[in-house]
Amino acid sequence: MISRGAVRSACIVFLLFANRLNADGMKHKLHVSEFGTTQGGDSIGRFVLTNDRGAVAVVISYGATLVSLRMSDRMGRAADVVLGYDNLAGYEYGKSYFGGTIGRYGNRIAGGQFPLGGKMVQVSKNDGPNSLHGGTTGFNKRVWAGVDRSRDDAQVLELSYVSPDGEEGYPGRLQVKVTYTLPAKRNELRIDYWATTDKDTVSNLTNHSYFNLSGVASTEILEHELVLHASRFTPVDSTLIPTGELRAVSGTPFDFRKPIAIGARINHDDEQLKFGKGYDHNWVLEKSDKPGLQLAAEVFEPTSGRVLEVLTTEPGIQFYSGNFLDGAARGKGGELYAYRAGFCLETQHFPDSPNHNNFPSTELKAGATYHSTTIFRFSTREK
Questions:
Q1: Domain housing 305
Q2: Which of 187, 287, 323, 350 is the most buried (most CB within 10 A)?
């Protein structure tokens, strides 16, 4: 019998061979190497996507994780704008979900249970009384298979994973595919998610990258200026589970409809901010008459001039201001990631949607296909 580790190693060898064919003008363009070996013996691939404008994205097959994303500032100087680790051990044992693909259900589910098909489903609890980001071993802790799908106009990495029926308590055998696309001529990273199931289940996939557009991970993100295209958010209880209310942001610290520094109101005397220890909430994105991608968020970092736009097909976006970073995680270059050294903009359906009939449904029927798209688009501007 061939071991799973041997199969993974064979895949890496094949991709390395495909990469060497680049010099002969073959279609495959990704640079592929080995990132490390898991405790279970799986060889983990490291995939480097580059474009004509100097952007570089690094993704690993452990957790389909975005490890690094280099983008230029207003002076043309490139720097890494996402937090992460230099080694596989950080991702295996770390608890902050840096850059990971989150599933089977992104965000929280109250009590780790929800109704489905007339029955109550119980999934694993890993966040006090609740389930968070797929449970004890979510998709960010699984080994994915990587395939180079590059085209003439873009470098494309496809990663796939099969979540067996009952994994973390979720029903249905879920076949998941995630693609990272870096266009040759545009500084944007597109992430597409697909999933199919053989039993009715729920699915809510997202990426959990922590951004710091300054390119200096030792600095706080409080001076970043944020816009969220949302007039409502979903308030939470003390365990960060939505109450079911869709509350207007007007007159609250949650109003980001016009550019304002993340830190401008983060310490206001507000119950919701106290529950989250800052921002850790879902915003209800404005609906458009046109289907497809919509602009959800914009972030500007004054020192570097970098601008991040987030476009998505999802109905919500979780803005998290890095409130649980505490300096314990030693990241890339030996940097200790301190309090609020990064922020997340997780495009998604709403937290705890299966328990709220007034929230967009996350149910995925047997035989149906889940598809979601998010684009992180970068540019620069003057102050």
A1: 4-380
A2: 350
